[in-house]
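Q: Joint fold for the lines below.
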Amino acid sequence: MPNGLIGRGLAIAVLGAARIAAADTIYVSNEKDNTITVVDGSSLAAVKTIPVGQRPRGILLSKDAKSLYICASDSDHIEVLDLARNAIARTLPSGPDPEYFALDPAGKLLYVANEDSNLVTLIDVERGEVLTEIPVGVEPEGMGISPDGKYLVNTSETTNMAHVIDTAARKVVANILVDSRPRRAEWTADGAQFWVSAEIGGTVSVIDAAKRQVVKRITFSVPGVAAEAIQPVGIAITRDRKLAFIALGPANRVAVIDAQSYEILKYLLVGQRVWSLAFNPDQSRVYTTNGVSNDVSVIDVGSLKVLKSIPVGQAPWGVVSRP
Amino acid sequence: MRAWKVGLPLVIFIAAAALSPAGSRAGEQVVQIGWLSQAVKRALPLSYLDQPPQDEGIQGARLGIADNETTGHFTGQSFVLTKTIVPDDGDVTAGLRELAAKGVRLVVTDLAAPKLLSLAGLPEAAGVTFFDAGSEDDRLRGENCRANILHLLPSRAMFADALVQYLVAKRWQDLLLVVGHGEGDREFAGDIRHAALKFQARIVQEKPWTFVPGARRTDTGHFAIQAEVARFTQGISYDVLVVADEGDEFGDYLPYRTFDPRPVTGTQGLVPSAWARPHEQWGATQLQERFLHQAKRWMTDRDYAAWMAVRAIGEAATRSSSADPSAIVSFMRGDRFELAAYKGARLSFRSWDGQLRQPVLLADARSLVSVSPQPGFLHQFSELDTLGIDKPETKCRMG
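A: Joint structure:
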């Protein structure tokens, strides 16, 4: 039941139901203490801490939801966490300093941003092999794959561009200039747009995927918060493209945006230095990692309210929800 | 507010821009950047551990060019650095003439303030913009300011404000100020006094340092130093010692040797700086590693300033889609310009004195302690402008 612009009364009713229905499990990577925290989606409490490789940042669920892929940045590889045993099953080569990655829709290929070497590394998950490396801008960071898997968008932090990579040809086919220090690239479910957050620029660029042009640059302003503290990073857009959630970093807020009109509906106060965002499977909730306050905030999508904050490990970075 | 106005004209879309080696790209814009420095013989620092590098500054400019070039591959711009390094006794004017004759109008300098000032007024400097990556001089940003100079390093006043904000935030408000004999030392001390007044710290005593140890490498030399520092600091009630010793002649002798156990800050101990070896936040690790890989040594403030100068030119060239020096400079001075430089803030140039507004790091040799401006020091427009000379108090009249 996709959320959003349903009436408030209904939203509250849904909220009650969602609490019972949501039997998801939330996985959080803790950059500083080299662990994954497992949070139970019904009790919203941490139930387990799993030690993993050094400096875990980006995490992704495999298509069968049986494994969690982890960028172990300082270990210079990707780990595959077996979620049945809660133990690392194997590692994948990734090139140096993997920070963030994307899985192709078939679940067979991982595209990894190697921050140190200006490369995107393409990995065959099954065979555990590097297939190729694609040169991009300085400090590749965000990775977003189109719903049909045909295009990968990579952002480079110092080049300030979104690079569109043709996944079949495995080469860069377009470059779109965005604001300073672009972080994440997130596609809309219909494949019509991708949104790019610029941490230092303080903006989110909405890019028309067909025209490869910026159609809207969203800016933020939170009363009582210095403009410099508004540093957009994580992006979550509902499947029906009605709402978008943007994590604003040290502004400690998540902006809620009408994804059709691009109007900012609300700023939700969450934990400190809010970084990554993830929906639960039915998109009735958004989870946020708060890197400085060491917790996860739970946002109710229907009521646009923060329900709870859950203490996790040190410097939580990535978050995913498993059905 | 900025932002969407920036909109569509700036959207650069280059179809099928493949990566090809530099120099083989036809029909592209070439941005010429000059480097002008004087090989000044620097005094050896007190510690044997950190010898001054011979290639300071220029390595930062080189890295900036490499970073700009990566972007340039996608935008059809290339960046060329023309280096002129004048010997110690050489003529910097001739150096400028050389660059100007080659058509270079954007010149990154690592020069002492008086030299830069003399260059900026020459006829050869017509149409040239200088990117001062070597001076922290307050007057060059104040009464001696010039319309054709932009400053990349924080001024001494910014360093002093950054430090005193932190001390006040810690409620370490009573300062003992120890001042060396150098001109820079006296200026930094003046800035500390000004900062103390501004942020409500108190200088309980100011003492000139006159002792010449002379025997640091002789056996048992440490006895004399230890005894002298204890004597020097005895009988004063203070929270923190602030030292002004830019020449690094005695400051490192102060920590652990004071009569009372007090931290040392200023030019030694906890030091305000543009860049610092232990800094690894906001992606700084990436820049540190790129620099280490290229230069085989750590990045200094001057390297960082030169890198920022070249990156600022690159950023303005990309955003204005131009290689024309005047278009680049006018974009850079405009309100749409922003530079990301691994300090968690967007940097831009102050309109009133050409100073790059930026956070200041507070670090010792092994760890980053804090970053100023400190939370709670508020400003009407930008909290970064709580550091250094703000618009209402500037003595700069560019005319």
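Q: Anything notable?
A: Chain B is about 30% helix and 20% strand. Chain B touches chain A through 38 residues (CB under 8 Å).
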